[in-house]
Design a protein that fits this description.
By secondary structure, the chain is mainly α. About 70% of the residues lie in helices and about 0% in strands.
Length: about 80
């Protein structure tokens, strides 16, 4: 793996945190009980991340899904993804 590719993850991570941190802080400000419910806080944070990244991730994986699913599927197919 090239060094640029390895550190590219940090760029996306910083972008995701930058997107989701402020709305999450505002949600905690409005409802401080979220601090005692880490699972709800995590889901809230990730919902803000997926709102921005979700469509791009789905489109980027479209070709891979078609190669893996299409030759082996027929009828009605339910594609279970990452929970978005």
């Amino acid at each position: 793996m090239r060094l640029a590719a390895a550190f590219g993850l940090f760029t996306y991570l910083r972008f995701a945190i930058g997107i989701a941190l402020w709305p999450t802080v505002l949600a905690v400000w409005r409802s401080p009980s979220l601090l005692f419910r880490p699972q709800a806080l995590s889901r809230l944070f990730m919902s803000y991340v997926w709102d921005v990244f979700g469509n791009g991730v789905d489109e980027a994986g479209r070709d891979t899904k078609q190669v893996l699913i299409t030759p082996h599927a027929y009828g009605v197919v339910l594609d279970l993804g990452a929970g978005r």
